[in-house]
Design brief:
The chain contains 9 helices and 15 strands. The chain is α/β, with parallel strands linked by helices and about 325 residues long. The longest helix is centred in the last third of the chain and has 16 residues, at about 270-285.
């Protein structure tokens, strides 16, 4: 069932979460598939609905820094990052507090928990009304293209989710930046819309993790992820016969069966907001998608990360 965002929809979503069932809701990044993070059975329902590997941890959403303090231990750098970027699209991977109520399944048995305070009013209202931390990965089948609209959730998960709260397209369009802290160093485990340059305004050093793992420390670190059914070819400088084209700025070529431009004016934020929706759109009509080079700077780091995982062998 899809309900337009309203006070009634928020109340119904909160009741559904407290009953241990699944709710998809908007955030500023992508739509999340939410469950009570303190309930083993509710968290297990996320993995079942998404067909997600149980070794892949989830992000736990709360509505304030104070709420995070009840779940995890923050060091001085993570406190500073939270103060600067929360609410917002930054996830911090932090040591679990002894006695933390979050299900061990949500953190895939790790001694850390990935925590975020979203900047979306509807998401925060639902979490606040539910009265529990909410585990919420992207609301799509595991490994497929992330959802930035309510209809994407319905197409991907169908009846596996009891309620979808619709607040329109997500403004950011790519998942949160995930960071682990060690002393004065912030390590980016997953690039997102909080850029390395922005993190550098708080952290003395910013590093980027490059290794993919069979047991990831963060969501979004599997080599193949965010993938359409179509074959994706990156760094295209021409279009082969039968290929659709995902272009950017003035990087466009003749001969494509269809072209969608992420941002004709070369705006990386506009490109990020359009990325998953355009991939889904082309994937619905084409078997092969060529993608032009995207600048490897600022938000382009996150866009290229998603595209590389979408194009990885699977």
């Amino acid at each position: 069932m899809i309900l337009a965002a309203s006070s009634d929809a928020i109340r119904q979503a909160a009741c559904t979460l407290r009953a241990g069932r699944l709710v998809a809701f908007p955030t500023e990044t992508v739509y999340g598939l939410g469950a009570d993070a303190t309930s083993d059975s509710a968290v297990a329902a996320i993995f079942e609905a998404k067909k997600r590997p149980s070794f892949n941890p989830l992000i736990v959403h709360v509505t304030s820094l104070a709420a995070a303090h009840a779940l995890v231990r923050l060091d001085p750098l993570s406190e500073d990052l939270a103060a600067r970027f929360w609410p917002g699209p930054l996830t911090l991977v932090l040591p679990r507090l002894e006695g933390s109520p979050v299900s061990l399944l949500a953190s895939a048995g790790l001694e850390t928990i990935a925590v975020r305070v979203p900047a979306d009013d509807v998401a925060c209202a639902i979490i606040d009304a539910a009265g529990v931390p909410v585990a919420a990965p992207s609301a799509n089948a595991s490994g497929s293209v992330s959802p930035t609209r309510a209809e994407h959730v319905a197409q991907s998960l169908g009846n596996a989710v009891e309620l979808i709260v619709d607040a329109g397209p997500c403004p950011v369009g790519v998942e949160s930046t995930v960071v682990a802290c060690d002393g004065d160093t912030a390590t980016i485990l997953r690039p997102g819309s909080v850029t390395a340059e922005e993190l550098s305004s708080v952290a003395v050093r910013v590093e980027i993790a490059t290794e993919n793992s069979d047991r990831p420390a963060s969501p979004g670190m599997l080599a193949s992820h965010y993938a359409p059914a179509a074959t994706v070819r990156l760094e295209a400088t021409s279009v082969a016969a039968g290929e659709a084209l995902l272009s950017f700025s003035n990087r466009t070529f003749s001969g494509a069966t269809e072209e969608l431009n992420l941002s004709p004016r070369g705006d990386l934020r506009e490109a990020a907001a359009n990325l998953f929706a355009f991939l889904r759109d082309l994937d619905s009509r084409h078997d092969r998608i060529a993608v032009v080079p995207i600048p490897e700077e600022g938000l382009g780091l996150a866009i290229n990360d998603r595209l590389k995982r979408a194009a990885a062998p699977r």
